[in-house]
Design a protein that fits this description.
By secondary structure, the protein is mostly helical. The chain has one domain. Helix content is about 75%, strand content about 0%. α2 packs antiparallel against α3.
C-alpha cells in the first residue's frame, strides 16, 4: 500500500458529501423554510385567538377561516417534513 492511498473509505465518503453542492443547497432551504415556519407559527397563533374570540361571541368558529386553517396546517406539515428529511419535496413556493 502506498503512502498516498487513503485506508479509510469512510473519510473519503464524508469528504465527497461535504463537497456535494446539493447538501449545502439543502441547508439553505432548511434555514429558509424554518424561518417561514416561524412566521406560519405566528399566524397560527393569531388565527387561533380570532377563532377563540369568535367562538366565545357567536358560539361557533368562523367558517371562512376553517379552509385557511386546513391549508395552513398542511403547509406547516410540508415545511416540517422537508426540513427533517421526511420528504424531499420542497414546499411552496419552490414546490416542483
Amino acid at each position: 500500500m502506498s503512502e498516498y492511498e487513503n485506508p479509510n473509505p469512510l473519510e473519503d465518503q464524508i469528504k465527497s458529501q461535504v463537497k456535494d453542492t446539493s447538501t449545502w443547497v439543502r441547508l439553505f432551504f432548511i434555514i429558509l423554510f424554518m424561518t417561514i415556519f416561524y412566521v406560519v407559527y405566528f399566524i397560527t397563533g393569531i388565527v387561533a385567538i380570532i377563532q377563540f374570540v369568535t367562538r366565545i361571541l357567536t358560539g361557533k368558529p368562523l367558517a371562512s377561516l376553517l379552509d385557511f386553517n386546513l391549508k395552513l396546517s398542511e403547509y406547516a406539515r410540508d415545511l416540517v417534513a422537508y426540513t427533517t428529511y421526511a420528504s424531499d419535496q420542497k414546499p411552496f413556493p419552490f414546490k416542483e
